[in-house]
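Hi support team,

I've been running sequence recovery on a batch of backbones for a student project. Most finish fine, but this one hangs at about 90% for roughly twenty minutes before it completes. I'm not sure whether the input is malformed or the queue is just slow. I've pasted the structure tokens below so you can try to reproduce it. Let me know if you need the job ID as well.

Thanks,
M.K.
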């Protein structure tokens, strides 16, 4: 590692410090996790993330930029980045960077001004503006903090899954196996860089806190549950948040059902308080999100007529048993439904699946095992239903619940074998059936065009899963026939089989990348920074656009530039509709622009166009920069961000302040009339003229406008969304109510005892 320095140890040391703090807090206030368990979890983190926590590398697919202008001159990497993770550098990363910039400037992250014509930032789930696991990475630059957040997601999932299973009455070995199955399963590891993984993190934490509220009932347990629900609500992925809340509610009601009326009332009162307080504290983010959601690109597309389910949708369950049956998108060859990230996230290990299947016929169950089994059956039935395309987007997220249920059921089965209460003969029958399904998955689904394509991957994984299945079967048979003391030893080996297989299966999905690929500044980018004033102080606020796939949308914001394109499922519908005349195609939810002679570009202040070398564009565009990385063309006379249409010759407009949420315009000799802008108006922008409120309007479609009086005026445009202000009020009330409900009142000191003694 020639470019390694001791500073590169800091992310790993920070994660270690946070882990030690959590261990101390759990041991003091909750349930102690044995040191040997933390040793296993730490070893897992080193195997998965050692190079990015201690070796100076980055957990981002940076070399995937080589496919686009102006980064095609970057040298290739081996192993190459995961092409499925492009969103981490084109969507999630820029959103997080915008939030960091806002906090660094001492303001709330309310508006993202460097993408499209602007869009709400706090309300954008991708930005994760208040997510605790993202905030804990703030001591480091965001490109380094991605590894810290990923490691914390895995560590917390492992820790609280283990604590949950122990509270369910399972021994250390089965609890460890269940924790490793869920924490290293497909949903956590394959999505570890996305907000969606946070739902998996807080699921076991919430269930553990509910269990403690039931069995202990202290105020610390209520606080832990409130923190878990709050973290979930701030997680950044609405669909999985709803699923986790529904599972948590079912878990809570199942426990309450088994309690006496008095205990049941106390449990429901405490947990209800925790859920209510968490919802109120999350209101500053939730209310703006709920206001934005109905008018977003994703919401509009979900309301469109649903196409029939694609052929083979019912086979989605197959990759729960054989994750590479349809190839693997990591190796750029996949013939399944969506991608291996989408379809294989339910795989939690062959050993776990075998043990979970054995739980179906168990004669004696643990208290919540029947409820978990029922949820697993319902989720699998929905996956098998072959829902239309729109509903399928929602249903495949159920793989989160499927993975958790399989881990839970598998851990319960291992505990029965450890205690000696399980029969050994069903093991052979279930293992034989599972072996047949796995073999059919790999041998019965070759590539439809070339049966030999990725054959080494499929056959190799058939052999690997066969080995793990045989070893697990042998250990379970031994546990079913050996003496009690040896049963625990046989079961205790299975967690390590689970961890080994899942690291082998899912670990390659997150390859580390060298720092030198972290958004280099080359000739075209440097030219744009110099011309468009990357510092974003005073100026006209001109924008850029790139043709086709060049310079992906949102990426310009990482360089302090503003791109008129916008890639985000939460993109405002008004912006998308306004840009329709110049949107030549869509790649998913990422637009590609053309029709450069359209007047929309002048209206939006687009001054420069970035294209691939050799691209020829017609006048009035003029080529102003040429390099092997890309060519840049200039558009004449673009409008500033705020302007007076058809203003009088003596009028003069100066934009003296151009910030994310605050624009100040000085107008000399204003003729009186409309003041227009190319700032998207979602209802949150307010207008002050000479420090007096003026009505904010919309003109030319979705853009902010106002009518100003004649004369010399100062106009200030401020972004103050009412939903955020209401959310702050609700959060304040919730915080006060929580303190009043949970903090015991002070006791007055006892006075001196009367001479005659107490009455």
């Amino acid at each position: 590692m020639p470019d390694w320095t001791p500073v590169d140890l800091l992310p790993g040391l920070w994660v270690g410090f946070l882990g030690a703090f959590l261990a101390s807090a759990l041991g003091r206030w909750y349930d102690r996790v044995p040191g040997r368990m933390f040793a296993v979890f730490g070893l897992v983190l080193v195997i998965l993330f050692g190079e990015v926590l201690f070796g100076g590398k980055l957990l981002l697919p940076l070399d995937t930029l080589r496919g686009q202008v102006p980064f095609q001159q970057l040298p290739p990497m081996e192993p190459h980045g995961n092409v499925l993770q492009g969103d981490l550098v084109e969507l999630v990363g820029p959103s997080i960077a915008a939030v960091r910039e806002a906090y660094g400037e001492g303001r709330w992250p309310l508006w993202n001004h460097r993408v499209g014509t602007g869009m709400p930032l706090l309300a954008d789930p991708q930005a994760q503006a208040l997510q605790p696991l993202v905030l804990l990475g703030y001591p480091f630059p965001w490109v380094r903090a991605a590894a810290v957040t990923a490691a914390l997601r895995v560590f917390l999932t492992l820790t609280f899954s283990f604590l949950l299973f122990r509270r369910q009455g399972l021994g250390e070995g089965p609890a460890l196996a269940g924790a490793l199955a869920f924490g290293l399963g497909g949903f956590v590891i394959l999505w570890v860089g996305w907000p969606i993984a946070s739902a998996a993190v807080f699921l076991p934490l919430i269930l553990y806190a509910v269990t403690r509220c039931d069995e202990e009932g202290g105020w610390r347990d209520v606080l832990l549950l409130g923190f878990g629900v709050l973290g979930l609500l701030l997680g950044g992925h609405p669909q999985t948040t709803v699923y986790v809340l529904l599972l948590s509610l079912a878990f809570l009601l199942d426990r309450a059902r088994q309690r006496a009326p008095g205990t049941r009332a106390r449990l429901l009162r405490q947990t209800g308080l925790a859920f209510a307080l968490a919802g109120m504290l999350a209101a500053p983010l939730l209310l703006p999100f709920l206001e934005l959601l109905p008018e977003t690109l994703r919401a509009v597309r979900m309301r469109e007529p649903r196409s029939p389910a694609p052929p083979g949708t019912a086979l989605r369950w197959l990759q729960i048993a054989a994750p590479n049956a349809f190839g693997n998108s990591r190796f750029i060859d996949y013939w399944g439904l969506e991608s291996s990230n989408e379809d294989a996230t339910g795989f939690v290990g062959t050993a776990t699946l075998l043990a979970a299947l054995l739980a179906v016929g168990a004669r004696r169950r643990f208290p919540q095992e029947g409820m978990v089994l029922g949820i697993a059956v319902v989720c699998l039935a929905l996956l098998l239903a072959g829902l239309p395309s729109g509903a399928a987007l929602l249903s495949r997220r159920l793989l989160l619940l499927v993975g958790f249920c399989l881990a839970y059921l598998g851990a319960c089965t291992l505990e029965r074998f450890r205690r000696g209460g399980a029969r050994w003969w069903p093991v052979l029958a279930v293992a034989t059936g599972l072996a047949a399904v796995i073999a059919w998955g790999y041998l019965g689904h070759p590539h439809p065009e070339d049966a030999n394509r990725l054959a080494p991957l499929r056959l190799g994984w058939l052999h690997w899963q066969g080995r793990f299945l045989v070893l697990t079967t042998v250990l379970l048979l031994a546990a079913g026939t050996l003496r009690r003391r040896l049963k625990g030893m046989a079961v205790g080996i299975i967690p390590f089989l689970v961890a080994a297989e899942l690291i082998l299966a899912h670990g390659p999905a997150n390859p580390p990348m060298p720092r030198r690929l972290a958004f280099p500044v080359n000739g075209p980018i440097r030219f744009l920074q110099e011309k468009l004033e990357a510092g974003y102080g005073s100026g006209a606020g001109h924008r850029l656009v790139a043709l086709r796939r060049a310079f992906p949308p949102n990426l310009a914001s990482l360089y302090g530039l503003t791109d008129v394109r916008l890639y985000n499922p939460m993109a405002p519908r008004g912006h998308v509709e306004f840009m329709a005349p110049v949107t030549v195609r869509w790649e998913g939810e990422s637009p590609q622009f053309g029709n450069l002679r359209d007047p929309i570009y002048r209206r939006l202040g687009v001054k420069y166009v970035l294209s691939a070398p050799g691209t020829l564009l017609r006048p009035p565009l003029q080529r102003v920069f040429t390099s092997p990385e890309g060519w840049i063309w200039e558009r004449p006379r673009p409008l500033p961000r705020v302007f007076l249409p058809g203003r009088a010759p003596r009028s003069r407009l100066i934009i003296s302040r151009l910030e994310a949420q605050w624009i100040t315009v000085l107008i000399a000799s204003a003729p009186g009339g409309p003041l227009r802008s190319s700032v998207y108006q979602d209802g949150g922008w307010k207008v002050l003229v000479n420090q007096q409120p003026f009505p904010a309007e919309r003109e030319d479609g979705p853009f902010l406008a106002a009518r100003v009086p004649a004369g010399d005026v100062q106009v200030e445009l401020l972004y103050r969304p009412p939903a955020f202000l209401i959310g702050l009020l609700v959060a304040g009330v919730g915080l006060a109510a929580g303190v009043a409900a949970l903090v015991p009142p002070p006791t007055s000191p006892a006075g001196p005892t009367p001479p005659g003694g107490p009455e």
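--
Follow-up from support: It reproduced on our side and the slowdown came from queue contention, not your input. The two ends are 80 Å apart (CA to CA). No action needed from you.
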